[in-house]
Amino acid sequence: MKPELSAAALDQIFREARTYNAFLPREVSDAQLRAIYDLAKMAPTSANASPARIVFVKSQAAKAKLGPLLSDGNRAKTLAAPVTAIVATDHAFYEHLPKLFPHADARSWFAGNPALSEITAFRNGTLQGAYLIIAARALGLDCGPMSGFDNAQVDAAFFANTTYKSNFLINIGYGDASRDLFPRSPRFGFDEVCRID
Asked: Domains (ranges, CATH) in the chain?
């Protein structure tokens, strides 16, 4: 039997965690970004497909490239964040399945089947982005996930000549609770959206 996480850990990852719009002027190191990924990569995906591809936008040059591609409401807060993760999906993920899922010919399940490969790529790449948020929170960082950018232009700027397509962004850093933190919005109760059959 595995022990439950402590109440403090559950608060940090879920109950007290918030979507931050402002961050303290504190660096997030490359080592921290690697640690976030190294946790997130261990979570499950279909056939271990692991289609997420992530660009951690940290340098001023990369921020200058991303800035004009953001919606007006997201530009200032994103450029001020220590790091912005562009969570993208490799839509030819199945080419790596001989390495990632070597005990079966999983590539043949997806190659030549665009409907299955597209939905599998999108679903699992999105899952991996969510895992990234949980990993960052578990390591003491805060996140601000969002849409609100020009996907096509981001793909051209950051993923040209690849099979990667951007999905969503995550601002990462140490949240500033004194600025732009909205009251927590309501959540559905269990009986409103769940049933046990």
From this structure: 23-174 (3.40.109.10)
